[in-house]
User: Which sequence fits this backbone?
């Protein structure tokens, strides 16, 4: 017990995308080596790291309120080092550092590989601000496996940064230029995860389709998929995020060749209007997007497609929004993340006056989300009566004695069962489809 209380504890609060979750895991892995343990209670921590997201203003607001809480705890006497990490730290590091004098440590995504050193400095009483981007040559992707990665599925990063300049997006400014992680390192991490019992690998990057293209002799993204698929024990491969412009025939072919590549693809379209797509600098048209969809469906007839939409972008007229709605229906997306356009500091679109009022943007968002709910429900209901293969992930969050997992098409299925089934692939007959999940019974 004595050792337990002598342990230094870190509390992580993570906002944002999978990349941030993954970065938190890597910070955890590195701090573990320096003798830190993770706690789920901020009041119990000697170090609090807030990993922030700046993709929309709402995410930034959430960071400020979380931070307010931790700073209050410190004011009231908790002996704790507070760090702000991630995209807001990168973008507004200076401002945060000056504004919050009781925050000890501010560092961007490129600070993740050096967290041990940064924390040590801060613990010696020095305030630290580090928002330098690292050298692109030999970029230090962290090999240590996230100690909490013991579930059924795990993320593996394949690249950092983004070379696209979609006019609404802050990511290229917070995460810097694109760097591909050497495939040998990726495969080593995949093997390490499989050895710990992970069965589903999700390859992550800001624009995975351009993986390896800038490096002589590196695999292409499609070749990487084949290489990961060959690792013994990898039952399922997912990946995110894809850019429709870069979705090549070789990746489409992988859906014919690789049974462990899942029948689900998240392919952000943003808008169904060519005018809006042009203003976003997405470099594809609606027609090109539909050609990719058709090719994917030819290669893998049961592929389920999900997407991201932005509504109320600069100069999105009613007819442009109608085009988005018609695309939603034409593709029949099984799910989507949809957002009101949020002007971001430093991005090209910021300079353009936006005539779409916030009220109108909210209305459009509601219309879109209502229709999406119908489509998602239809899709889930289409499973009723069918037997599907489910990779069991864990206990259901709501019901005792019920476990849940996903199909290859990413449908969440809840069914009565024992926790001993976690990690196995089981056949389940779907009895009911709802908006976000299905219910079923195990077939034995
Ligand atoms: N406003 C609203 N949504 C945005 N996204 C990215 N930038 C913005 C912004 N400025 C959305 C896009 C992207 C997803 C990750 O977040 O739809 O695909
Ligand atoms: Fe942002 Fe576009 Fe890069 Fe995605 S592809 S991270 S939307 S700039």
Assistant:
């Amino acid at each position: 017990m004595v050792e337990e209380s002598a342990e230094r504890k870190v509390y992580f609060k993570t906002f944002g995308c999978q990349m941030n979750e993954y970065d938190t895991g890597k910070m955890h892995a590195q701090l573990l080596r320096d003798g830190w343990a993770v706690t789920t209670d901020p009041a119990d921590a000697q170090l609090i790291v807030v990993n922030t997201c700046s993709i929309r203003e709402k995410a930034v607001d959430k960071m400020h309120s979380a931070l307010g809480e931790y700073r209050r705890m410190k004011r009231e006497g908790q002996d704790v080092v507070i760090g702000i990490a991630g995209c807001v730290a990168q973008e507004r590091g200076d401002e945060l550092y000056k504004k919050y004098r009781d925050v000890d440590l501010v560092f961007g995504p490129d600070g993740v590989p050096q967290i041990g050193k940064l924390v040590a400095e801060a613990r010696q009483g020095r305030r630290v601000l580090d928002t330098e981007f690292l050298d692109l040559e030999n970029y230090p992707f962290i090999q240590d496996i996230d100690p909490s990665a013991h579930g059924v599925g795990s993320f593996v990063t394949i690249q950092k940064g983004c070379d696209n300049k979609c006019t609404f997006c802050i990511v290229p400014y917070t995460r810097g230029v694109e760097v591909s992680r050497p495939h040998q390192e990726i495969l080593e991490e995949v093997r390490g995860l499989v050895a710990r019992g992970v069965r589903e690998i999700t390859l992550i990057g800001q624009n995975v389709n351009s993986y390896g293209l800038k490096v002589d002799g590196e695999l292409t993204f499609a070749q990487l998929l084949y290489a990961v698929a060959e690792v013994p024990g990898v039952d399922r491969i997912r990946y995110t995020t894809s850019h429709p412009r870069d979705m090549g025939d070789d990746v489409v072919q992988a859906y014919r060749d690789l049974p462990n590549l899942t029948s689900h693809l998240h392919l952000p379209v943003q808008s169904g209007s060519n005018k809006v797509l042009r203003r976003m600098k997405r470099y594809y048209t609606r027609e090109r997007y539909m050609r990719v969809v058709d090719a994917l469906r030819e290669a893998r007839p049961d592929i389920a497609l999900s997407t991201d939409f932005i509504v109320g972008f600069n100069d999105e007229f009613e007819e442009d929004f109608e085009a988005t709605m018609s695309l939603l229906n034409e593709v029949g997306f099984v799910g989507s993340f949809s957002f009101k356009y949020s002007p971001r500091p430093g991005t090209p679109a910021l300079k353009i006056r936006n005539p779409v009022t916030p009220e109108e943007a909210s209305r459009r968002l509601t219309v879109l989300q209502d229709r999406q709910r119908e489509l998602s429900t239809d899709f889930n209901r289409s499973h009723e009566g069918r037997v599907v293969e489910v990779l069991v992930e864990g206990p259901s969050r709501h019901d005792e004695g019920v476990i849940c997992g996903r199909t290859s098409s990413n449908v969440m299925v809840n069914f009565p069962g024992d926790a001993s089934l976690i990690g196995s692939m089981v056949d389940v007959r779907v009895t009911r489809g709802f908006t976000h999940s299905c219910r079923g019974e195990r077939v034995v």
